[in-house]
Write a structure and sequence with these properties.
- The protein is α+β, with helices and mostly antiparallel strands and 494 residues long.
- It has 3 domains: 291 residues, no CATH class; 116 residues, no CATH class; 64 residues, Arc Repressor Mutant, subunit A, CATH 1.10.10.410.
- It is 39% helix and 19% strand.
- It has 15 helices and 14 strands.
- The strands form 3 sheets. A 9-stranded mixed sheet has the order 2-5-6-9-1-10-11-12-13. It has a 3-stranded antiparallel sheet with strand order 4-3-14, with no helix packed on it. A two-stranded antiparallel ribbon has the order 7-8.
- Strand 5 and strand 6 form a beta hairpin.
- Helix 14 crosses helix 15.
- The chain is elongated and about 90 Å long.
- The chain starts with 6 loop residues before the first strand and ends with a helix.
Length: 494
């Protein structure tokens, strides 16, 4: 399906992020399984989160703090007059009470903005934040293969933050970039793990297409079942193309909710889209209005850490890093903290960036299935700094440094000790280097003749053979100097 420039894409994003609290939104049940115990279905529940008659909810203060902190990070206004909880009514197996306690008319925070770098388009876009409000999560449905569905209420009542944008996004690439930027902020401030694969962050795209230059919005479709940012971008691309083709052929579009089928690469109809009045919102009678004090808001504002955009700018301005390196390092707060830890030990920033964003991150990706982050790695920043000092001083080669990093990454052993005990230090003995270079040239006389005849590309092969004889530990500078000297001496004799 082709997309033409005659039409303009309009996208708004809704994100649901589970908040990092120990207990649920309105009761004392744990939000995560107890360490060392299996997470059996329907074990982290009580009469309150199961929606039993006669129970009364109590607001989780920490959840309120995290939504306020998120609002401040996004430049939102934090409501201090009266924040009201409301009942959002609908009947579905994952909702034990038959309604969800949420916020609608008077959200906790509203009216913010997020500036998002879109690398693939070479620009930044400003996305308006309509609101960030607080609610409770639903239960989890497990669909069986014989037409039956099981319900696990462990997730029911977990504090959930919903962040809704203005329809300011103009391309699928921008939608993806917004999601990634928001995830980074949520992790930086500790509000949520924001892990889409684990379900702690869920994202939905609202998309419509209209003729360029017009003000009226087109028919909106909401797309669910997006479990990665790649899926978000692909689903938006599919819907933009589908809408455009329908408009060009004069076919009607229906406001509806669609799901994303990753395997087939297409959206599928789920149901007609609900409006706000379908949920019959009304004030939650069991909870009083919430009035956060100005002092509380000021305290949270003072606790805001350095956010990703500010950190990127500082890395470029103060450490002299490229925009690319700064972007990679600040994409995850744990990785940025690890990098800072290495630099604080007087390792040159560029050297530290090359290794943390390069080989160290590659090893993290090897353990991606375990969701390993830099903060979990056994080798702490002082260990990597120790290894980089050995490398910078010329006591080990780059190849050996990679080997040692791979081993100590999981063990946490001292890289210097491993290098010393195994004799992995760089060979700088000029007599030995001279001897092994001579032997390499004698063994590969044909290639030496080709080089002297003008075939310069053979030089790399000869370097490799000399290094091989030195077990990859030869000082690269000394090996190259001696190799060129012997090649030139031989040329003069001939």
């Amino acid at each position: 399906m082709a997309v033409t420039t005659r039409y303009e894409t309009i996208i708004g994003i809704e994100v649901h992020a589970q908040l990092r609290t120990a207990s649920k939104m309105f009761c004392a049940c744990a939000t995560a399984p107890v360490e060392g115990h299996p997470d059996e279905p329907n074990t982290r529940v009580c009469p309150i989160c199961m929606g039993m008659p006669g129970t009364l909810p109590v607001i989780n203060r920490r959840a309120v703090e995290l939504v306020m902190l998120t609002g401040l990070a996004l430049g939102c206004h934090v409501e201090t007059e009266a924040v009201r909880f409301e009942r959002k009514n609908y009947f579905y197996p994952d909702l034990p009470k038959g309604y969800q306690i949420s916020q609608y008319a008077l959200p906790l925070t509203s009216g913010g903005r997020l500036e998002v770098p879109v690398a693939s388009e070479g620009t930044d876009v400003v996305v308006g934040i309509t609101r960030a409000h607080l609610e409770e999560d639903t239960a989890r449905l497990l669909h069986g293969g014989r037409g039956h569905t099981l319900v696990d209420f462990n997730r029911a009542g977990v504090p959930l933050m919903e962040i809704v944008t203005e329809p300011d996004i103009r391309s699928p690439a921008q939608a993806r970039a917004y999601g990634e930027a928001l995830r980074d902020i949520l992790r930086y401030i500790g509000a949520s793990n924001a892990d889409m694969e684990a379900g702690s962050m869920r994202i939905e795209g609202n998309v419509s297409v209209r003729e360029a230059g017009t003000e009226r919005l087109g028919t909106k479709v909401e797309v669910k079942n997006l479990n990665s940012f790649r899926s978000l971008e692909r689903a938006m691309e599919f819907e933009v193309a589908r809408h455009t083709e329908a408009l060009e052929h004069g076919e009607p579009l229906v406001q509806e909710t669609r799901g994303w089928d990753e395997g087939k690469g297409r959206t599928i109809i789920q149901r007609s889209k609900e409006e706000a009045n379908d949920y019959r919102y009304f004030p939650e009678p069991d909870l009083p209005p919430l009035r956060p004090s100005e002092a509380w808001v000021d305290e949270l504002r003072a606790r805001l850490p350095e956010l990703p955009a500010a950190r990127r700018a500082r890395y470029e301005r103060e450490l002299g890093l490229s925009a690319y390196d700064a972007g990679v390092l600040t994409s995850d707060v744990a990785l940025a903290d690890y990098f800072d830890g290495v630099v604080e030990l007087e390792i040159p920033p560029k050297l530290a960036a090359n290794w943390v964003a390069g080989e160290f991150s590659r090893l993290l990706n090897v353990h991606a299935a375990e969701r390993l982050r830099a903060s979990d790695v056994a080798l702490r920043p002082h260990g990597l700094a120790e290894l980089l000092r050995e490398l910078d001083a010329g006591r080990v080669s780059g190849g050996v440094a990679k080997t040692v990093l791979a081993e100590t990454f999981e063990s946490g052993e001292s890289p210097a000790r491993v290098i010393g005990e195994r004799g992995l230090g760089q060979v700088s003995d000029l007599t030995l280097i001279t001897q092994e270079v001579r032997a390499a040239l004698e063994e590969h006389a044909a290639q030496v003749a080709e080089y002297r005849a003008g075939k310069q590309q053979v030089y790399g092969f000869l370097v490799g053979q000399a290094m091989k004889r030195l077990a990859g530990r030869g000082d690269a500078r000394l090996v190259n100097e001696e190799l060129r000297r012997q090649l030139e001496d031989g040329r003069q004799r001939h």
